[in-house]
Structure formats: structure tokens, C-alpha cells
Q: What sequence folds into this?
């Protein structure tokens, strides 16, 4: 008996209990639909909760809320407001709004004097949210059209807007996380690249993409937020990471 | 341009043709066929729901394997069985006391989960090194090292017995 034969015998023995099992595709479909139904119920509860909140908020702030447009939420704490205004002073960044909170991170957004958008997020390593991201004109236009927009922020944070979505799935370069979307459509969470980032075999670059998904599984849109490239450096190949 | 997600029928074909390989690999990892079946069923349900996330980078089978493997590793961590070898598997085999078989079994079960999975994916699923590396998120070199480790442990044991 050769060593390979013995290894094969051991492996056969380990898998022996599986031999009596038969495939059951109907069970797979049932499990898939059961979770989807649970998602719909969760969304219904969320909608009811959001509706109740909306009534309260409308009564409280009335016209002020309507005027705030897509950036809806309470005013940011002074230190976070100041940090976002200082992000790019020439843009004339206005007052910051708290958009959503998840996993110890808070997303803030503000309009600029020229009608653009800038965002910041707090994280354990950046409690004020001193790093941030101002949208390009093209992305700002997409946001105005209430389309899916995603962006990377300091502290390995990512955030964005995905109206109508239940969750956003971030994938690429070794990132594989699912984040919840708030009732207002905003989301934030950790998007930490592994060390080193994972690039597809034979490829020197990878994009991290956010995919917004409705409760019934429909894809509402995708938007890239990070580009990871392996480039030649003075001391050898290095990974270059760009916010996009 | 967005790639259309794979059709549910694609998953069904993969499931029906490769069910044995999926189930054998997870059973060998968890040492429990019922738990393994639950993992495989859940993983395919999850893959079906998330099919739009499949970007076309790598084969659909490799993408599904990754979901299955991650679920299996999660289940294994939850069970906290990492250091345990069920008695029925650790005991000497009943085929006339061929001790090498028990020794190899113990060596195999003592490998770290990902290395052990590399062996299982190679033998049960007949996946190539590149695909195994993609599924386990390790380098192809590590896949080869894991397989060599299992084989060399076996050879050492056989040599010891030859001297006895």
C-alpha cells in the first residue's frame, strides 16, 4: 500500500458519513426564500419605524427639514462640524449633518458653496472625522438624482447613499463585507483592506465596489470606491490605493 | 457595464453535479455529516440570494466554494471543536491494525483548518491549486505546502514502522 493509497483511504473514511446524504435543491430554494421573506418583514418594520420618525421629525423641524434636501438628519456635534468644514476650506463647506451611525462610525455630510457634497466619518482612530471625501461633479449629479453613490473615507471607513436598499455589499481586493442601509438611504461602515490586498491572479489591480441590494434581492446599483494597484516602486513593487 | 447575474439554474446544475464534493469536504472538516449538510444547504441558499454579487472574476464554482468554505469555517469556530478529534476517528482503524492509517488520520485532523481544507478540496473536489488558493484566499504556494505536509507526515510514519 503506497502513501497516497493510505491518504486516500483516510480521506474516504472521513467522508464516509456523507455518502448516505442526497441532494435536495427544493430545500435550498426554501431556505433562500425564507431569508428573503425575513428581509421583507425587517424592511416593513423599518418603513413603519421610519414613518413614525418622519412624523415626529416633521412636527419638530418642519420647513427646515424640507430645505435640507438629501442630507437629512440632526446637526453634527461642533467638533465634527468643524472638522468637516476644515476638510477643504476653499470649497466653502457648510454646516454638517449627521446622516447615519453603524459599527462605531458616524457619517456626516455637508453641501459646498457651489452645490457640491463633502463627507466625513468618525472611526475609533479618527473620532472627529478629520479625513473625508468631496464628491466629483459627476458623483454629485448622481447623488442629486438619488442614485447609488459610494465613497471611501479615512480610518478604513466607507459610506454612501443607496435609496431603497436594505444592504450594501462591498467586494474586491480582499474586502467582503455587508453593511446595513438606514431608512434615509445612507450607510457607513468599515472597509479594511487585508495586508497585502488580494488581487485576482495575473492582474495588477482590483477595484472595491459597493453593490446596493433591495430586500427582494434586486440590485439597485453599483459604484466603485477604491482602486488598488500593484506598481513598481524604488524598493520593489508596492500597493497604491486610490479613492475613486 | 453591469454583468447580468448568473441564473438560478446555473446554481442548481452546480449543486446537483457537485453535491458530493461539497458535502464530503465539509463533512471531513466538521466531522459531522448532518452539520455539513446544513452548511452546504445554507451556503447555496446564500449564494442564490447574493448571485448579483458574482462579478465574473474566477469561475462560478470557485465563488460558491468560497461561500461554502467560509460558512464551514464559521460553523467550526462556533462549535469550538478546533482541537477535538472525535474518538471514532482518532481510534485505530479496524482493518487489522494498520496503524499508519490512524496516524495519518490524526496528522490530517491536526492540520490548521485552512491547510486541511486545501487537502480536502484537492482530493474530494479535484480543484486545481489556483482555484483552491482563490477559495481559501491563500497563495498557490501555500496550497502546495499543505498538501506536501500531509504527504510527508505520512511518509515519516511509514518509515518509522519499517524500522520497528
A:
Amino acid at each position: 500500500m503506497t502513501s497516497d493509497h493510505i491518504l486516500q483511504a483516510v480521506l474516504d473514511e472521513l467522508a464516509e458519513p456523507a455518502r448516505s446524504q442526497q441532494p435536495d435543491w427544493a430545500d435550498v430554494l426554501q431556505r433562500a426564500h425564507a431569508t428573503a421573506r425575513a428581509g421583507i418583514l425587517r424592511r416593513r418594520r423599518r418603513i413603519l419605524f421610519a414613518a413614525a420618525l418622519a412624523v415626529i421629525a416633521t412636527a419638530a423641524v418642519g420647513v427646515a427639514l424640507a430645505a435640507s434636501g438629501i442630507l437629512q438628519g440632526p446637526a453634527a456635534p461642533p467638533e465634527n462640524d468643524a472638522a468637516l468644514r476644515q476638510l477643504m476650506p476653499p470649497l466653502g463647506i457648510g454646516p454638517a449633518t449627521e446622516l447615519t451611525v453603524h459599527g462605531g462610525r458616524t457619517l456626516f455630510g455637508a453641501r459646498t458653496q457651489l452645490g457640491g457634497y463633502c463627507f466625513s466619518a468618525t472611526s475609533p482612530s479618527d473620532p472627529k472625522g478629520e479625513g473625508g471625501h468631496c464628491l466629483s461633479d459627476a458623483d454629485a449629479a448622481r447623488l442629486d438624482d438619488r442614485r447609488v453613490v459610494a465613497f471611501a473615507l479615512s480610518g478604513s471607513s466607507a459610506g454612501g447613499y443607496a435609496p431603497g436598499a436594505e444592504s450594501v455589499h462591498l467586494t474586491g481586493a480582499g474586502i467582503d463585507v455587508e453593511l446595513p442601509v438606514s431608512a434615509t438611504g445612507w450607510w457607513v461602515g468599515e472597509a479594511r483592506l487585508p495586508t497585502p490586498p488580494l488581487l485576482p491572479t495575473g492582474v495588477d489591480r482590483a477595484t472595491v465596489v459597493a453593490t446596493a441590494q433591495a430586500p427582494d434581492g434586486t440590485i439597485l446599483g453599483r459604484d466603485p470606491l477604491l482602486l488598488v494597484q500593484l506598481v513598481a516602486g524604488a524598493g520593489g513593487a508596492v500597493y497604491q490605493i486610490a479613492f475613486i | 457595464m453591469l454583468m447580468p447575474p448568473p441564473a438560478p439554474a446555473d446554481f442548481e446544475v452546480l449543486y446537483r453535479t457537485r453535491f458530493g464534493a461539497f458535502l464530503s469536504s465539509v463533512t471531513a472538516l466538521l466531522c459531522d455529516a448532518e452539520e455539513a449538510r446544513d452548511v452546504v444547504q445554507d451556503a447555496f441558499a446564500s449564494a442564490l440570494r447574493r448571485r448579483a454579487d458574482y462579478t465574473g472574476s474566477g469561475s462560478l464554482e470557485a465563488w460558491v466554494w468560497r461561500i461554502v468554505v467560509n460558512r464551514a469555517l464559521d460553523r467550526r469556530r462556533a462549535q469550538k471543536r478546533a482541537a477535538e478529534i472525535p474518538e471514532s476517528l482518532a481510534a485505530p482503524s479496524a482493518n487489522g491494525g494498520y496503524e499508519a492509517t490512524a496516524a495519518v488520520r490524526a496528522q490530517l485532523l491536526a492540520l490548521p483548518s485552512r491547510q486541511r481544507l486545501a487537502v480536502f478540496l484537492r482530493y474530494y473536489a479535484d480543484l486545481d491549486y489556483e482555484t483552491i488558493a482563490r477559495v481559501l484566499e491563500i497563495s498557490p504556494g501555500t496550497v502546495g505546502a499543505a498538501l506536501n505536509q500531509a504527504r510527508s507526515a505520512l511518509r515519516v510514519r511509514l518509515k518509522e514502522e519499517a524500522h520497528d
Q: What stands out?
A: Chain A has two domains: 28-67, 68-243. Chain A touches chain B at residues 1, 3-4, 6-11, 13-15, 17-18, 20-21, 23-25, 27-29, 31-32, 35-36, 169, 171-172, 174, 198, 200-201, 209, 211, 213, 217, 219, 222 (CB under 8 Å). The first strand of chain A starts at residue 97 and ends at 102. Helices of chain A lie at 3-15, 25-61, 63-67, 78-85, 137-144.
